[in-house]
Amino acid sequence: MTEWLRSPAVMNANTDAATGTDTAIGGAGSPLPLPLAVGLVVNPRSGTDVRRAVAAAGAVTIEDKANVVRRVVLGAREAGVDRFVVHTDTHRIVQRATETMRGLDLHWLDYEMTFTEEDTVAAVAAMRDLGCGVVVVLGGDGTNRAAARAWPDLVVVPLSTGTNNAFPVLAEATIAGAAAGHVATGRVPVDEVTRRAMVVRVRPDGASTPDDLALVDAVAVDDPYLGSFELFEPANLRTAVLSRADPASVGFAGVGGLVEPVGLDEDAGLLLRFGPAEDCDRVVRGPTAPGHYADLGIAEARRLAPGEEVEVNGPLLLAFDGERKRRLVAGERVYLSVVRDGPRVVDVADVMARVAADGAYVFPGRV
Question: Which of 2.40.128, 1.20.120, 1.20.1250, 3.40.50 would CATH assign to domain 3-197+343-357?
């Protein structure tokens, strides 16, 4: 393991997996791999931002998240996993979910929190270094993007507790936990039950490799407020590059899907260029947020081949997966492209079908 891949949380790990008790990782010693471990990432802020006030997005409470965590853990334990790598959060979500459970082997990551997405990056990097076979992420597209930044080869079960939820899978938490457990124990071959995600890569002008990504959509917007969670004004939209376009989704993936659907299994992306509705030949009325529709003028819409680059010039902001993340100043240029090199998403239904066929949950009755 090269030094630059080490996460701060496990640079000096010290834990005793044999104790069967809660253990903090971050003391003296060397990193200790944790076989048959499932990582748990819970974003306490997901599903709570201002879009609940300006649109009809529902709030996801701390109790809701704790209940999801509890079901994930119970499902994974039925699949043979008792070891979990977890991180602290401001609302003690994992503690609430597991405080009445016995026999759990919880390994707590110990690192300085920033209360930003970098906490997710640090946690997932530590889970990678500790050898977690799979990570269950509770959050939206933004939380999963942070996880993917930390671990390009991440094997993930993404569960929706956010606002933009095009990337998370639709699965009941108990079954999602069971699927994660079967992947972690090796009962199912990970290469056969996961699918590499198509993502949007961001390459700065003059650089040979990308330096950022979006899981679902990268959008260029003429907006002065970096970091704002306000809804996008249609008049400010310039360009969107999508890794998927699903008419059954909300957000830019849903808008794109109403114009030109692009499926998860297709090796393609979608380019949308926006303009004033009154000047465009096509206008799409799309769900830009939960419970919120807007009219968007479409100046251009076409499919993108893998690796085909789209030039974006400043001054403007780049929003990744619904969050305004990067400012381009005048004269600054980046290139956006879609490639299938994102995290490996677990197919929960496929996992459960395979273990059912093997009789994993069936045993002899009376004889």
Answer: 3.40.50
